[in-house]
Amino acid sequence: MSDAQSDWSLPDDRGAVRDALVSWYEADHRSFPWRETDDPYEILVSEVMSQQTQLGRVVEAWAAFLDRWPTPADLAAADRADVVGFWTDHSLGYNNRAKYLHEAAGQVVDEYDGEFPTTPEGLQDLMGVGPYTANAVASFAFDNGDAVVDTNVKRVLHRAFDVPDDDAAFEAAAGALMPAGESRVWNNAIMELGGVACEKSPNCDAAGCPWREWCHAYETGDFTAPDVPTQPSFEGSRRQMRGRVISALKEYEELPLSKLGPRVRVDYVPGVSDGSADENGDSDAEYGREWLRGLIADLEDDGLVEAVESDGETLARLRR
DNA sequence: ATCCCGATTG
DNA sequence: CAATCGGGAT
Predict the structure, then answer these.
(1) Closest nucleotide to A34, Cα to C1'
(2) Which of A48, A91, A121, A162 could pair covalently with A216 via S-S, beta carbons 3.0-4.6 A apart?
């Protein structure tokens, strides 16, 4: 057992803390279209998109996605290539998530008779749905979730109540704070607080933070936030190259590696084995056919791309 | 450069 | 537990 709980405590007047936040949220908050629905499918689409993209950019993609695939049955019946293509068209990144969403729709249709599970535990059985998304969907669709713990909530709890940067502590604090049976408004409210008031750079007075009178950070002036792992640079990364493969294969139905290579890297060297030492013993990386095959192999393992042999050459295309 | 309502796989 | 997964906006 961790002794993390011994370091912090929530205010005695927990009810006042709750009421203050809910009142603040209900008085005024950002308007997003997915806050106007309780359809679990529509909620799930919004959550998966929101994991990776600023909310403002999700609005258009969300509406377009649901216009094209209005129900889980519609999505399940679609070709994966089209779903991944949509993801790329709308610059949503993380193509695996398009695959997960497609898979989850198939699960709902095939294993759940078209009806979403209504509990966090049940929802986690869906592909691509982890603890965060399960609680979000359970909350916003069914008002039946537990406290959501994401990076926003962690930041708020750490600052306001000095909860230590420890997953178990965050989990316990978030659960203890949420009013039972009010997950929809509560999770919306606490994430709204993290989104507009308790941002990385805090905005307490301008946003009229409802927790100032209890806030440890507001009192001490120490607005340190839990560390969020910094991502490696994207430029030149393998992720960027994967994205270029998907984009090229969306544009052209299928491409031989010789045509695909130059579209992925301008310094692609056709017909050269990569990475191995040359005659002089130099080991400068060369990006040739073997390198590209490795990239394609990973995308095949991810179920996003398939490679076929035709007339002695390898063709790549999006997996259907 | 850093941020953005995480999840899966090894 | 660590590594991996995109790309636009600021």
Answers:
(1) B5
(2) A162
CA dihedral A308, A310, A316, A320 (to 10 degrees): -60
A239 touches strand C (CB under 7 A): yes
Residue span(s) of chain A under CATH 1.10.340.30 come to 8-220
Instruction: Assign a CATH topology to domain A8-220.
Output: Endonuclease III; domain 1 (1.10.340)
pLDDT score for A61:
95
Q: Does residue A231 reach within 7 angstroms of strand C, measured from its CB? A: yes
Question: Is-contact A252 A288, C-beta < 8 A?
Answer: no
Strand B: positions under 7 A of a protein C-beta atom: 1-8
Cβ contact A234 with chain C strand, < 7 A: yes
Residue A220 has pLDDT above 70, yes or no: yes
Single out the residue of A100, A18, A92 nearest to residue A50, CA to CA.
A92
Q: How far apart are CA A183 and CA A178, in angstroms?
A: 7
Tokens of A32: 């997003």
- A14-34: pLDDT as tens digits: 999 999 999 999 999 999 999
C8 closest protein residue (CA to C1'): A91
Residue A139 in contact with residue A147, Cβ under 8 Å? no
State both tokens at A13: 């007047």
**What's at A161, amino acid-wise?**
F
Kindly report, as residue ranges, where domains of CATH 1.10.10.10 are found in chain A.
238-318
Distance, Å, A85 CA → C10 C1': 27
Strand C proximal to A238 Cβ, under 7 A:
yes
**Fold type of domain A238-318:** Arc Repressor Mutant, subunit A (1.10.10)
Chain A window 153-212, residues with Cβ within 7 A of nucleic strand C:
none
Chain C: bases < 7 Å from a protein Cβ = 4-10
Reported as a single tens digit per residue, the pLDDT across A231-263 is 888 999 999 999 999 999 999 989 999 999 999
Rounded CA–C1' distance between A171 and C3, in angstroms: 24
Return the CA Rg of chain A. 24
